[in-house]
Amino acid sequence: MVEFSKVLATHETSIPGVVLFDLPVHGDNRGWFKENWQREKMLALGLPDFGPVQNNISFNESAGTTRGIHAEPWDKYVSVATGRIFGAWVDLREGPSFGAVFTAELDPSQAIFIPRGVGNAFQTLEDNTAYTYLVNDHWSADAQGQYTFLNLADETAGIQWPIPLEDAELSDKDRAHPRLADVVPMAPKKTLVLGADGQLGRALREAYAGDASVEFAGRNEFDLCDAASYERNWKNYSAIINAAAYTAVDTAETAEGRRAAWQINVSAVAHLARVAVENRLTLVHVSSDYVFDGTVQSHTEDEAFSPLGVYGQTKAAGDAVVSVVPRHYIVRTSWVIGEGRNFVTTMAGLAGRGITPSVVDDQVGRLTFTADLAAGIKHLLDARAPYGTYNLSNDGEPSSWAEVAAGVYELAGRSRADVTGISTAEYFKDKAGTAPRPLNSPLDLSKIQATGFTPADQKDRLEAYVTGVADAQA
Q1: Could you say which of 93, 238, 263, 276 would form a disulfide bridge with 117 (CB–CB 3.0 to 4.6 Å)?
Q2: Number of other residues whose CB lies within 10 A of the CB of residue 267
Q3: In the annotation, is 237 catalytic?
Q4: Cis omega (within 30 of 0) on the bond before 448?
Q5: Overall pTM > 0.85
Q6: Is the dihedral of CA 442, 447, 451, 452 positive or negative?
Q7: 379 is a catalytic site residue
């Protein structure tokens, strides 16, 4: 008999991500009724918003009908419409939980969520049992070729079938599936890193070194301005990290630069956003302090856009586009320093040649070293932090560009006094075609710190960086 009037509730299982549900079933002398899947209520209980697109029903005439064990390349939400089943689930995903087993009897008052890659099997315990499931991808012959199978009689799994398999109704195909020792685990979905040859891209390569689930694409592999680049099987991906951008701040003020900046920072981002929405991907997008005019001392994530120049305008527009993607991280950063030519390497070179530069002293902010920026992005994805916008720079007392330059000189064995401070207006007064800069760029870091990520102090990172540059030149 079906148990009526249960409270909607969830129960964790021995397999990560597999969640058992109690469903309220309302019955009387006429029969019964239940809400089999109710998105709003179940999301509140922690069910992933897995986006089902197909509803399937398996009708089984006789008790003892046994099907499985099939791990499919999509998520499933399984319930019983009528009758009763013994369900068996085996984790066939690549990773430490490979081979974990969970079993349970299900009637119409229960349901279970099965993530991609977890093997699914059931045995009917009553005649005329209907087994139903929602899936978040459309079945196709090509998709079936991506299944992972396990033999129902596998000794390692040791499933205690209520009706012995020799007495059960099985298909010949299910009888022939491999034992666990011969199963190739289902690989996780991939993360695609775009702009992988840039400063941040190279740091992301380091952060994800040895992780076969992360794919890197430079401009030769994925041209953001070429529509053909977006034509791939996105069902094999879970996330896109967009580390590519147009960053020539001054050139963006020219006619040619303006078009390029809008094409890469906005049009291409809109194309990525469309891909992410259509395929339920997480989109990670890198933003900039240039979306603000710098009139406040410290910028929070919810500050209104107020860009001063074309580059900042395109970055703000890109942020607005990405913000409508349900699964997104906008990572706003400032004063990025990575491998290759940048402000710090330039100052170190000047110090080495005995040059005494004038450097602006009224633009204040914090450096962001790409190793920390990459680590913060990885943290947000790994921790499954709430989606949204996060400021991410190095921590510590904000400083001006002149103070950063003086610090580089000191670390290079020169005097801090060799660097002369100058106002932005004075520095650029004879330089035509330069873009306006925000004078205050410090980013409030409390939101990302609340997720468990604490960026290193910029002075510590600067010392290590300058030491590394000196060692490389020695």
Answers
A1: 93
A2: 16
A3: no
A4: no
A5: yes
A6: positive
A7: no
